[in-house]
Design goal:
Elements lengths: L23 H14 L3 E3 L1 E3 L2 E3 L4 E4 L10 E4 L3 H20 L2 H16 L3 H12 L3 H28 L8 E9 L3 E5 L5 H13 L3 E5 L5 H13 L7 E3 L4 H10 L3 E7 L2 H13 L9 E5 L4 E5 L5 H13 L9 E7 H15 L20 H12 L7 E5 L3 E2 L5 E2 L2 E5 L5 H4 L6 E7 L4 H10 L3 E2 L1 E5 L3 H10 L6 E4 L16 E2 L10 H5 L2 E9 L15
Parallel strand pairs: 1-5, 7-8, 7-10, 8-9, 10-11, 12-13, 12-20, 13-18, 17-18, 20-21
Antiparallel strand pairs: 2-3, 4-5, 6-23, 14-17, 15-16, 19-22
Bound molecules: nicotinamide-adenine-dinucleotide (NAD).
The site of nicotinamide-adenine-dinucleotide has 32 residues, from α8 and α9.
Length: 543
């Protein structure tokens, strides 16, 4: 019981450190990555507060150096998935009854641990495990995850403050109950911050969670969990399992206590989870909340009035940072004929200065793609580019998997706006460009809208105000995050709530009250201070 109305600390975005030569953070990250890279971490599952080891091991290897072993994680079976569900359900009542400020304090403490003593641990882990350079690791593993943990607490406080009107004589209240059951959090490889946010957002709202990280990120997942444990997360609130996704999902989706899925990953996997839930719909105690942020085919369209240098820079940064493996990465561009040669020249000049290699060498802007399967799939698109289809690789196009999974930033010029690489999500450092006649601006906007089933991010470049307004109107449903004269990547928690619609997901906006509301099942309570003591109403009285 608290005889006070607490206010959570006013959140601030975690400042991004520069890692420039001579800075202490640069030395600290180098030392951390070196130390971590020379050890092999044993990674257990974590169920009901217990570390669980099976001896059935999966390897963790840096994508840029696939012969080096940095960790081994223990794989579970269906039994462990069932144990994790039991542990989550066992912890549910006590956690749901824990006052908000106590729950919030765990995540605020985790944020400060990550901003401080664990910063270069999680940055170093992300650098090694997901092949992110210092800056990409910093904006993801440190800043974005700190921001999720700080801002979600504030969003939760704001949500709880939403209360109904109470006329005289009664008191109407809304209680934001946690869901009745457990939440299944399934996280992707590409952002350590998303891996940290998906299990913790429902947990902050009083839910208990079974978390399955992507196999390729068990290493950074292990350190996220270490921070949460150090921050005082009670046993059973978040249970981390590893192993076959199919087997784990089979057990969890069959459970009558499944109350929600918090997913980020490909559209195909989310569709399969949704379908299984649909098939089982009669078996659940409550309708499970299905929250999924999925694929993208993000666009940049330039109007003839745009600044060519701004367009070219957005294309280079927006398409190739983190090897194009951001769900928001630009992967199709529409450039007017009158501007193309200028944009191309600037892009070529910028791309010629990009270095590719391991992230431990800080001069590298581009590192490796995540694994063998991504490498094979991305390089197949590049190898398939043929002049007879009106497509040509005009920059990059080389790749090697000898030491790591390296693919050069690659630009494909596509004569036809419906060429395969203009339409399909490739999820790698591949940008396709379609050059359109200046007078076909309006038609091209319609093409941008219709080309792909996705609607995650997009950017419009124009100096003419009317052109920006026209494009924003035509593309109203083509992106959940729209950028005007900026690259389509780099959403910041508290500033640009993130998510898309159509085949890009349920658009529940990670890092906002919208997402947190989905993890609650509100109960309305009406209290009448002086209840009626007889049934007739005045209209029934004799005149
Ligand atoms: P993925 O779909 O391959 O994997 C995502 C997660 O699903 C992983 O944990 C994986 O192990 C798991 N999974 C795979 N099969 C499963 C099954 N049958 N049952 C349950 N879980 C299963 O995606 P990925 O390669 O990790 O990430 C890349 C994808 O994620 C891209 O499509 C990208 O656009 C998308 N993404 C979207 C957003 C967004 O906010 N919209 C953000 C990041 C990534």
């Amino acid at each position: 019981m608290t005889n006070a109305t607490y206010r959570v600390p006013v959140p601030q975005n975690e400042p991004i450190l520069s890692y420039a030569p001579g800075t202490p953070e640069r030395e600290a990250l180098k030392a951390s990555a070196k130390e971590m890279g020379s050890a092999v971490v044993d990674i257990p599952m974590f169920i009901g507060g217990q570390e669980v080891r099976t001896g059935k091991l999966g390897d963790c290897r840096p994508p840029h150096d696939h012969q080096r072993l940095i960790g081994r994680y223990h794989k579970g079976t269906k039994k462990h998935a069932a144990d994790a569900v039991r542990a989550a359900l066992k912890a549910r009542r006590a956690w749901a009854a824990t006052p908000f400020h106590e729950r919030a304090a765990v995540f605020l403490r985790a944020a400060e641990l990550l901003a401080g003593p664990y910063r270069q641990v999680l940055n170093g882990a992300t650098m090694l495990c997901q092949s992110k350079n210092a800056y990409q690791a910093e904006i993801d593993a440190a800043c974005e995850l700190v921001d999720f943990w700080r801002w979600n607490v504030k969003f939760a406080e704001d949500l709880y403050a939403h209360q109904p009107y109470s006329p005289r004589g009664q008191w109407n209240r809304l209680e934001f109950r946690p869901l009745e059951g457990f939440v299944y959090a399934v996280t992707p490889f590409n952002f350590t911050a998303i891996a940290g946010n998906l299990p913790t957002a429902p947990a902050l709202m009083g839910n208990t969670v079974v978390w399955k990280p992507a196999a390729s990120t068990m290493y950074s997942g292990h350190f996220i969990l270490e921070i949460l444990r150090k921050a005082g997360l009670p046993d059973g609130v978040i249970n981390m399992v590893a192993g076959s996704s199919g087997e784990i999902s089979e057990v969890l989706l069959q459970s009558p206590d499944l109350a929600g899925i918090h997913f980020t990953g490909s559209t195909g996997v989310f569709n399969s989870l949704w379908k299984t839930v649909g098939d089982n719909i009669g078996n659940y105690r409550t309708y499970p909340r299905l929250i999924g942020e999925t694929g993208g085919k993000d666009f940049i369209i330039a109007h003839p009035s745009a600044d060519p240098a701004a367009v070219a820079t957005a294309l280079v940064r927006g398409s190739f940072e983190y090897q194009g493996q951001k769900c928001s990465a630009a992967s199709r561009a529409y450039i007017p004929e009158s501007m193309w040669l200028k944009v191309k020249k600037i892009m070529e000049e910028q791309l010629s200065r990009i270095k590719m290699g391991p992230p431990e060498d800080f001069s590298n802007y581009v590192n490796a793609v995540i694994d063998r399967s991504a490498y094979d799939s991305i390089t197949a698109y590049i190898a398939g580019v043929k002049p007879r289809d009106g497509a040509k690789v005009i920059f990059g196009g080389k790749f090697s998997d000898e030491k790591g999974y390296f693919i050069e930033p690659t630009v494909i010029k596509a004569k036809h706006s419906d060429y395969k690489t203009m339409c399909e999500e490739i999820f790698g450092p591949v940008l396709s460009v379609h050059v359109y006649p200046d007078k076909k601006w309006a038609e091209t906007l319609k093409i941008v809208d219709k080309t792909s089933p996705y609607a995650l991010t997009g950017a419009i470049f124009a100096d003419e105000r009317a052109a920006l307004a026209e494009a924003a109107a035509v593309l109203v449903n083509a992106a959940g995050n729209l950028y005007l004269n900026d690259k389509p990547t780099g959403a910041v928690v508290g500033q640009q709530p993130f998510g898309g619609a159509r085949a890009s997901g349920t658009n529940d906006k990670a890092g906002s009250f919208i997402n947190l509301a989905r993890w609650t099942s509100p109960r309305t309570v009406k209290e009448t201070f002086v209840p009626a003591t007889d049934f007739p109403y005045p209209f029934m009285a004799k005149p």
